[in-house]
Amino acid sequence: MRLSRYFLPTLKETPSEAQIVSHRLMLRAGLIRQHAAGIYTWLPLGFAVLRKIEQIVREEQNRAGAQELLMPTIQSADLWRESGRYDDYGKEMLRITDRHDRDLLYGPTAEEVITDVFRNAVRSYKDLPKTLYHIQWKFRDEVRPRFGIMRGREFLMKDAYSFDLDSDAARHSYNQMFVAYLRTFARLGLKAIPLRAETGPIGGDLSHEFIVLASTGESEVHCHRALLDKTIPDDVDYDGDLQPLVNDWTGLYAAADDMHDVTKAASLGGSLVTARGIEVGHIFHFGTKYSKPMGATVTGPDGEDVTVAMGSYGIGVSRLVGAIIEASHDDNGIIWPESVAPFHVGLLNLKAGDTATDETCARLYQALGPDRVLYDDRDERAGAKFAAMDLIGLPWQVIVGPKGVAKGMVELKNRATGAREEVSVDSALARLA
Ligand code: ATP
Ligand code: MG
Ligand code: MG
Ligand code: MG
After folding, report:
1. What does DSSP say about strands 206-213 and 272-287: parallel, antiparallel, or unpaired?
2. Computed over its alpha carbons, how large is the radius of gyration of the chain?
3. Which of 29, 58, 286, 394 sees the fewest Cβ atoms within 10 Å?
4. Cα 296 from chain centre
């Protein structure tokens, strides 16, 4: 993409309404614009990142055996009356009435919708287990929308739902998602810590929150230091027994404020870390909380009806954009992990209009591929170009100036380390291919 044509409205001034760094940078780097409180437009650069995150989430869901579908954003209130949650959910639910005076709502989550789909389609235990998910916009009328897309009212969530014959089988589905979450966050360049959590309004008996440490996070986290250094294997057999892997991650102390056990934590001594964190994912095993009132049953092996055991599993896809920036930035701007970067390379023409630099840039642009390169071909000062590229945080910069080009050389800069190297055009191409 040529920057001269790209819709990238960056800001020079720090927007005064933004209290945390990710919100400031998302506005300054032209990723989002606020439409109304907690409701945002995703501009091309922000939207590209959102799509990349979504794709990684999708790949890891699919790898774990979940199947993608798409449920509506607008739901029927009647289903929520069946589960008993219509009144319980309170003011966070945006309630809508249509022209026939029917009660609708903008979905804050989708347990009722998926349970309805399931009960109308699945009859036999032979069709179990099933884990279904979608990546869809949600609306929650948050009392205090803040920190930009981090606590929006409209936000993009991946929510998965598992259906099993009994609680043990449901535990396996839960473990699959647990491991898929560890892999997803690792691919996004994040350290996310699973914490035992309260089940809250979703209900149920087993739950973990996944928290990314960040000083601006809204949750307080207490955990064993060793959790920060754990890695997740590349080759997970999702059909095999995942319990040892899950035990390995849940054996160390880790709790949010509401589950914090001061005595137990004190026994960790110097290994205890207390920090702030951002909730990026939350998984629940809740058994028959929805299947029972909604009559989601299958015929079991002995011919009797069995109420299915369920779980639900959320990832805050849009919140992750902010969480990644909180975890990866410096004074000059964003530092995207390669896996989610909107472009791989920023190409800076320091003397646009000069035949030699134009030709070298054209060659690099073509060879690296216009969809992987953001080419700053504008007639601007070098300083402004450096600042803009650092602000938007692409992993690599290729700096093309007349002096270097005369020797057949360009400069290659790594945004994360700041390291610069003078290399030949060919070797820049080879390195960035
Ligand atoms: P929070 O504690 O931040 O209000 P939650 O516990 O209410 O989140 P869940 O119902 O667990 O949220 O939803 C699953 C995921 O959706 C959360 O882990 C979070 O990443 C994301 N999420 C929830 N509310 C918002 C929001 N208002 N804006 C952006 N993402 C959100
Ligand atoms: Mg909430
Ligand atoms: Mg929460
Ligand atoms: Mg939660």
Report:
1. antiparallel
2. 24
3. 58
4. 31
